[in-house]
Amino acid sequence: MTADVVGWPATDAEKYRNAGYWRGESFAQFLSARTRAYGDRTAVVDDRTRLSYAELDEQSDRVARGLVDLGIAAGDRVLVQLPNRVEFLLLWFALMKTGAVPVHTQPGHRSSEITHLARLSEAVAYVIPDKHADFDHRLLAQAVRNDSPALKHVVVVGDPGHGTGFTSFADLLTDRPAARTPKSRARGEDMALLLLSGGTTGLPKLIPRTHDDYLYNGRAAAEVCELASRSVYLAALPVAFNYTMNCPGVLGTLGVGGKVVLASNPDPDYCFGLIGREGVTIAAINPQMAPVWLDEVSMTDADLSTLRVLQIGSARLADEQAERMTDGFGCTIQQVFGMAEGLLCLTRLTDPPEIINTVQGRPISPADEVRVVGPDDREVGEGEEGELLTRGPYTLRGYYRAAEHNAKSFTPDGFYRSGDLVRRLPSGHLIVVGRSKDQINRGGEKIPATEVEGHLLAHPGIRSVALVAAPDPDFGERAVAFVVPAGERSPDRRELAAFLADRGLAAYKAPAEVRTIDAMPLTPVGKIDKKVLAASLRDGSAG
C-alpha cells in the first residue's frame, strides 16, 4: 500500500490470510493459471471475436509489451473507457501484467467527470473507442488531455484520427519479442484497480481494490452462484461496472473456466439471441431493464432453455416485479445488492420464492461484518430501519487520496458507512429501504445531487435549485429539479439538459423533470429542506 491508499490493519490482514480468503495471488497469475487449466476452452466472445484462454493470455501479453514500449510502468494509472468488447479484457489483463492500474470509468462520462478522474488519479494514459453510441470519444480525449498535465497517451480502439498524436490499439498488438513481456511483481496486497464510487457528495471518488480482496470477491460470489466450467455468463450491462465485472460477473466466470459473452447492448431481442446461440446459463441486468426483458420474453422465439440464473441488481427490485420475473422467465431470479466499495449480498439459489421476491440478499462471506445503526451509531433491533455499516475481507478501508472524506465515511474501528438504509431479518437477509446520502439512483446510475446542483446554479436563469429523487416505475428513481428562476421565465428540461451537456456532464445526470417554485423551503438552520420538496412530490403540492 502507498500513502494514497488505506490498508487493512495487520491483525485483520493476517486473519483473512489464515482463513484462506486472501491467497497472495495477482491477476496476472490468475490468468496464467486458468490458461494452463483451460487453454483451448473459449474464454470470451463478443460480436466480432472469440478467444480461448490461451489466446486471451497470449494477446494480452502482446498488449502488455506495447504498453511498456509506450513507457507505461508498474503503478501507473490508466483511464479505461471501453464498451463491451474483447479489447477491454485484453487491455485489462495487459495492465495487470505490467503492474499498471486500470481506472474504470463509465460509458456515459464526459469531460467533467473524465478530467476530474484524470487529475485525481494522475493517469498517464486514457484508452477509448473511436466512436461509440454515436459519440466521438476522440474529441473528448483531446479536451481531457489538454486539461490533464499527467496524461501522456491516448490509445484508441479503432481509428485514432489524423494529426491527433493518439496511438492505435492495433499497434499495441504488433508482434514484439516475447522476451520483452513484462514480469508482474504485483503482490496480493497491492492495489490492482480503481473503481468509482457513486459520487454522493460531488464528483466520483476512487475505490482502491487489491488483488487479494478483488479475487476473493469474485471467487466467493461464484461459489454462491454455483458457477462451474460449463457456466456461460452474459455481460449485458457495461463491463466496467463492478456488478458486471465481479459479482461474480466476468472475473468470477473466468475463475472457474467458464465462458464470458460480451453483449454490445442490453436490448432483449439481441441478448436473447446471444443466450440461445452461446448457451448462456447466467445473466445480469438491472431493474430498469427488467420490465423490458419481461415484455420481450413472452414474444421471443429464442431458445432460453439454458438460462439457469437471472441476476437483478444495482438498484432495488420491486417485490411485485420480482414475482413477475420469476413467473415469466422460469429460471431462478437472484437479487443482488452490493457496492463497488465492497460488500456484496446475494439471494441464494435455494432460497424460497417468498425470500427471493422480497429481499435484496445476504452477505456472500462468513467474514462480512454488518451493523444496522440509528443516528447515534447504536445498533437497531432486527427488522428496524437503520444505516448499513460494514467491514470485511473485500470492503475498502478508505477511498483513494481522500483523507478528509474518509474521516466521515468510516467509523474509528473501520466500518464503512454505506449510506444505505436497510432492515435486517433474523436470517441475515437485508431489505433495502433507501439512501441516507443525497444521491439519486436512476436504474443503477448514481446521480450526485450536489454536483448537478452546482452546475445548474451556473445557469443565468436560475437563482436557486435543489435536485430531489422521485419514485419512477421504470428507473426506480428519477431526478426532479426544483428551480427558483432568476427572471420571469424558468428554463425547461430540454434547455437544462443541453446546458449540462455543454458543461461536460453525462446525459443521465440531467433532471427528468423541472418544477418552478417561488422560494425554497428552509430548515431552521437556513439550509434547503429537501424533505419538504420530496413530500410535495408525493402529495402533488408543488409544480
TrEMBL record:
InterPro entries tied to this protein: AMP-bd_C (IPR025110), AMP-bd_C_sf (IPR045851), AMP-binding_CS (IPR020845), AMP-dep_synth/lig_dom (IPR000873), ATP-dep_AMP-bd_enzyme (IPR050237)
Segments crossing the lipid bilayer: none
AMP-binding enzyme C-terminal domain location: 451-527
Taxonomy, superkingdom: Bacteria
Domain annotation AMP-dependent synthetase/ligase: ranges: 34-400
Coiled coil (UniProt feature): none
PANTHER family, A to Z: LONG-CHAIN-FATTY-ACID--COA LIGASE (PTHR43767), NONRIBOSOMAL PEPTIDE SYNTHASE PES1 (EUROFUNG)-RELATED (PTHR43767:SF1)
This protein's name: AMP-binding protein
Species for this entry: Streptomyces anulatus
Lineage, uppermost ranks: Bacteria, Bacillati, Actinomycetota, Actinomycetes, Kitasatosporales
